[in-house]
Amino acid sequence: LTISAIQPKSVCTLCISPGTLPATVTDMPKLQVLNLTGNQFTGPIPSSWAKFGSRLQQLDVSSNRLTGTLPTEFGALSGLQTLRASNNLLTGQLPDAWLGMKGLVYLSLGSNKLNGTLPAAWGRGMLALRNVSLQDNEIAVS
After folding, report:
1. Is residue 76's pLDDT more than 80?
2. Which of 25, 78, 114, 119 is least crowded, fewest Cβ atoms below 10 Å from its Cβ?
3. Residue 81 DSSP SS3
4. Contact 121, 97 (CB under 8 A)
5. pLDDT tens digits, residue range 84-138?
6. Contact of 95 with 74, CB cutoff 8 Å
7. Distance (Å, rounded) from C-alpha 117 to C-alpha 3?
8. d(Cα 57, Cα 53) in Å, to the nearest integer?
9. 22: burial class by Cβ within 10 Å (0-12, 13-18, 19+)?
10. What is the Rg, in whole angstroms, of the alpha carbon atoms belonging to the chain?
11. CA-to-CA separations, 94 to 130, 132, 138, in angstroms, rounded
């Protein structure tokens, strides 16, 4: 199954054979919910997904085998309300640039290999944020 063979919809739940996350999902202009959980994807989360801008409301890439850092470009996802990327192998720090996700209400990044501190800038920019799950990482709150 390839992404290009799917008709654009507002909700998309895909079960795709293991591999890397497809960068081409941004070609679906009406996509609002993308659930790719539990598909054994490897590699990084594509920074090109920032092209969704304000269109994408929910993104779930949890329970895969994703590696690399969190894309700083995701600060452009101003319409994103829910982001789940827990139970992966993601590394690095929480990006200050994510304060651009002004509509984010729920953030789940638990059970990765993230480190550093919770960015102070998030408190000034992410005013809608109500639920943050960061357990099983090395993140400090200062």
Report:
1. yes
2. 78
3. coil
4. no
5. 999 999 999 999 999 999 999 999 999 999 999 999 999 888 999 999 999 999 9
6. yes
7. 36
8. 10
9. middle
10. 14
11. 17, 12, 11
C-alpha span between 8 and 10 (Å, rounded): 7
- 3-state SS assignment for residue 121: helix
**pLDDT above 90 coverage of the chain, percent:** 73
Q: What is the secondary structure of 21-74 as a DSSP string?
A: PPGGGGG-TT--EEE-TTS--EEPPPGGGGGGTTS--EEE--SSEE-SBPPGGG
Which of 107, 105, 110 lies closest to 129, judged by CA? Answer: 105
The β-bridge partners of 69 are 91
Output phi, psi for 27, to 5 deg: -75, -5
The pair of structure tokens assigned to 71 is 């894309």
State how far the Cα of 60 lies from the Cα of 77, in Å rounded to an integer: 14
Residue with token string 């591999």: 19
Please state the pTM of the whole predicted model.
Answer: 0.87
How many angstroms separate the CA atoms of 23 and 26, rounded? 7
